[in-house]
Amino acid sequence: MFDLNEPLLTETKAAALLGVTTDDLALWRRQNKGPEWLSIGRRIIRYEPAAISEWLYNLGHPPHDQEPRP
Question: Tens of pLDDT along 13-69?
Fold first, then answer.
């Protein structure tokens, strides 16, 4: 869920923060990968900083149903 009190990042700023290109972000969106994003109209894409942080955190922590069992 997006927090309306937090400023949204443009694709360019989100890509710079992640160290990838805007083309990478576009590819991830088409593949349903990457951080959660918001589409405003047909051409405006924005990212919430908290969604990027959560996505980065989850990269190193598999979902509960995929964790190795003891």
Answer: 999 999 999 999 999 999 999 999 999 998 999 999 999 999 999 988 766 555 554
Buried b (16+ CB within 10 A) or exposed e, 19-40: eeeeeebeebeeeeebbebeee
Domain for residue 68, yes or no?
no
Provide the residue range defining the domain that includes 26.
9-60
Q: How many domains does the chain have?
A: 1
pTM of the model: 0.76
Residue 30 in any domain: the answer is yes
